[in-house]
TrEMBL record:
Cellular component GO terms held in the UniProt record: Rab-protein geranylgeranyltransferase complex
Protein EC: 2.5.1.60
Protein name: Geranylgeranyl transferase type-2 subunit alpha
Chain residue ranges for the region called Disordered: 83-109
Record's function text: Catalyzes the transfer of a geranyl-geranyl moiety from geranyl-geranyl pyrophosphate to cysteines occuring in specific C-terminal amino acid sequences.
Top-level taxonomic group: Eukaryota
InterPro entries attached to this UniProt entry: Prenyl_trans_a
Basic and acidic residues composition bias: residue spans: 83-92, 99-109
One Pfam family of this chain: PPTA
Enzyme class: transferase
Keyword flag Transferase: yes
Gene it is expressed from: Dper\GL21629
GO biological process, one term: prenylation
Length: 507
């Protein structure tokens, strides 16, 4: 039996772990009790900092302790500021006394305080590199320090990203410090490229790239995430990444952003529909506009202009707003809508009893021949891959998106067929694909409606599909009548969009 290592039995090991856990809990409670007692007494001193470190080194995610440390740091800053004021008063006296040794300057002590906090966060990040609290405290400490070394923080990010290039906490922190250090966007883009070459499956790096490109290569029409030339290059690069590992989703997500989801966001709320008559007006936005009441909305006609006030939300998402103030509409005059810095010309209704504005949701943007050729090449590559892997969900979805980017109307039916296939291949996300099919269907129907002789009074949903939702409902606020299937009306219930007729004043 000599020389053999004694192995604990399962029961012995369980008892040992139980005792260790009990000791840790007892120590934690004792330390927290002491910390909270000192906090109640206002003792924000070095002992308090030492007590908090004991716990944070083991568990960096105790938010209360980080808050207490910030209170201690602010108290130290206050004390050092007061000491500096006293020091300035006694400088002349000390000079006359000829003191040889000077105590550490308040500024040096202050930097020591900041340095201690940074060291604590580094030690905590070694325990948990994805601790929200530790990263937040580091950001807070750096912002407090007017002499923060931002370049050092950039190098620290480089170090951490060597350990884990996909840690989105580090990438978030990197965006914070590179902005403070004024790192050129071109340099950051090169850094992203290198990280992607090392590992294609890097969501954070692709995302970081998507934030840099619109700034470096802006698109004047704002209907694409970047200039067409750079977009073509990005599509070529991402296709290589996607086909290297078709089952990895990171490159496919980035490609989806390139294909249309990345149209540059407008700063001002975008009006998609507006209608007015003698009984009031209704306005609809592309996205929810919860602060619309704070915006100035005006009408102008010839030399006259006036404000429209007292708007009320017409739906729960606040994408549609109504105004039931009577308007002195005259059919022989032209009108314009003014919102923030936008001025929108209104068209007269065919019946002559009001004016309106409408822009349907665009399924795709126009593109140059070179970009169109690249999209068609990528679509063919997807079709080729589907011959070998017909159940590749990312290839099915991307090919549908490419078809819509090339010609949404001509490829509508085939793209919907891909979504039906995806419901079988990826059944867990069946509802998502149904919603996506509804969006694509309504985009086409709204575009048809804009050229219909019944526009804008009557909207008929002619698509023969089992829709269970009605996206873009705010676009229908300018209609008087909605022709929908009874099944869809029952499915929508209270979510059925209100028409202009239903929003009129009671006469």
């Amino acid at each position: 039996m000599h020389g053999r290592v004694k192995v604990r039995t399962t029961e012995e090991e369980r008892e040992r772990k139980k005792k260790e856990h009990a000791l840790k809990v007892r120590a934690y409670r004792a330390a927290m009790g002491r910390i909270l007692k000192k906090r109640d007494a206002g003792e924000l001193d070095d002992e308090m900092l030492g007590l908090t470190v004991q716990i944070l080194h083991r568990n960096p995610d105790v938010t209360t302790l980080w808050n207490i440390r910030r209170e201690c740091v602010l108290e130290k800053i206050k004390q050092l500021s007061e000491a500096e004021a006293e020091s300035n008063k006694s400088d002349e006296v000390q000079a006359e006394a000829g003191a040889e040794e000077k105590p550490a300057a308040p500024e040096d002590k202050l930097q020591s305080v900041y340095g201690q906090e940074l060291n604590v966060t580094e030690q905590c990040l070694m325990v948990n590199p994805k601790s929200y609290n530790a990263w937040h405290h580091r950001c807070w400490t750096l912002e407090q320090n007017p002499q923060a070394d931002w370049q050092r923080e950039v190098q620290l990010c480089n170090k951490y990203l060597k350990y884990d290039e996909r840690n989105f906490h580090t990438w978030d922190f990197r965006r914070f410090v590179t902005a403070k250090a004024a790192v050129p966007a071109e340099q950051e883009l090169d850094f992203c490229t290198e990280k992607i070459k090392v590992n294609f499956s890097n969501y954070s790096s692709w995302h970081h790239r998507s934030l840099l490109l619109p700034t470096l290569y802006p698109n004047e029409q704002r209907d694409r995430p970047m200039s067409e030339e750079k977009l073509q290059q990005e599509l070529e690069m991402v296709l290589t990444a996607a086909f290297t590992d078709p089952n990895d989703s990171s490159a496919w997500f980035y490609q989806r952003w390139l294909l249309g989801g990345g149209a540059q966001a407008d700063q001002a709320p975008k009006v998609v529909a507006f209608r007015m008559g003698v009984t009031g007006a209704v306005i609809a936005f592309k996205k929810p506009c919860p602060d619309f009441e704070q915006l100035k909305v005006g009408l102008s006609s010839n030399e006259d202009s006036w404000q429209l006030q007292s708007w009320q939300p017409a739906d729960s998402r606040r994408t549609t707003w109504k105004n039931q103030t009577p308007i002195d509409y005259q059919k022989d005059r032209s009108y314009s809508l003014k919102l923030s810095e936008q001025e929108i010309k209104l068209l007269p209704l065919p019946t002559g009893d009001g004016a309106f504005y409408f822009v349907p949701p665009h399924a795709a943007s126009s593109c140059s021949k070179e970009l169109l050729d690249e999209l068609q090449t990528q679509l063919q590559s997807c079709f080729d891959l589907l011959e070998y892997e017909p159940d590749s969900k990312w290839t099915l979805l991307t090919s549908a998106l490419l078809m819509r980017a090339i010609d949404a109307t001509a490829n509508h039916e085939r793209s919907l067929e891909h979504l039906v296939e995806l419901e079988k291949v990826d059944a867990l996300r069946k509802g998502y694909y149904k919603d996506l099919a509804a969006c694509w269907t309504l985009e086409l129907e709204l575009a048809k409606w804009a050229t219909s002789p019944k526009f804008p009074k009557r909207f008929e949903l002619t698509a023969e599909s089992a829709l269970t939702s009605l996206p873009y409902g705010q676009y229908l606020a300018i209609a008087d009548e909605l022709e929908l299937s009874e099944k869809l009306k029952e499915e929508l219930g209270d979510r059925l969009p209100q028409t202009f007729a239903e929003l009129k004043l009671q006469e």
